[in-house]
Amino acid sequence: MLQQFLHDFGYFALFIGTFFEGETILVLAGFLAFRGYMDINLVVVVAFFGSYAGDQLWYFMGRKHGRKLLARKPRWQMMGDRALEHIRKHPDIWVLSFRFVYGLRTVMPVAIGLSGYPPGRYLLLNGIGAAIWATALAAAAYHFGAVLEGMLGSIKKYELWVLGALLVLGLGLWLRRRFKNARLARQVYAEEQALKAEQAKAAEVKTPGE
Questions:
Q1: By the 8 A CB rule, do 185 and 73 touch?
Q2: How far is 56 from 195, CA to CA, in rounded Å?
Q3: Which of 74, 96, 154, 204 has its CB surrounded by the most CB atoms within 10 Å?
Q4: CA-based nearest residue to 133, from 57, 10, 26, 54
Q5: Tens digits of residue pLDDT in 163-206
Q6: Overall pTM surpassing 0.85 (yes/no)
Q7: Contact 115, 91 (CB under 8 A)
Q8: Are 133 and 51 in contact (CB under 8 A)?
């Protein structure tokens, strides 16, 4: 049943997951490839195209609507400003490596586009970075399965536990980011309200003397 489901939808799900922000789904696919449910070479290829296409889209969105996109979320705004500082100092290094920094997958391509980084250069280096990321993460997950098998013997009876643990880990990281974003949004809102209150009070004090 699992094998048929993965045959029908696994690679499509992998593409969609890596198109957006798919560290967890790529790790799952690498482990499933070790178990024989997916092909490791296809996993790498699909993950490469998903990641490459997604980051190209965010880059061009950043060139056209960078500030509007970053302003949608307080955390994106803060991270985008920080990302712009890094990009100006070491642009090529960040284009190649941002996928390996958790949480920067969406913000960094937007910031790179906003910075005016050349499209042709990004097209090339983004492809190299996507290839390295897809190969390294898929291979690490594949060999993680081999290490587990070396420790536990045949892991057939444990594979659902391992898959469940990886899913829980991915969900935990996602929830942590959501809560962090919500807390930061509340903090920014409170600061904005305090600033408005101060400005209103200053205006009231100033008015009688005019």
A1: yes
A2: 38
A3: 74
A4: 26
A5: 566 566 556 655 566 666 556 555 555 655 666 666 666 666 66
A6: no
A7: yes
A8: yes
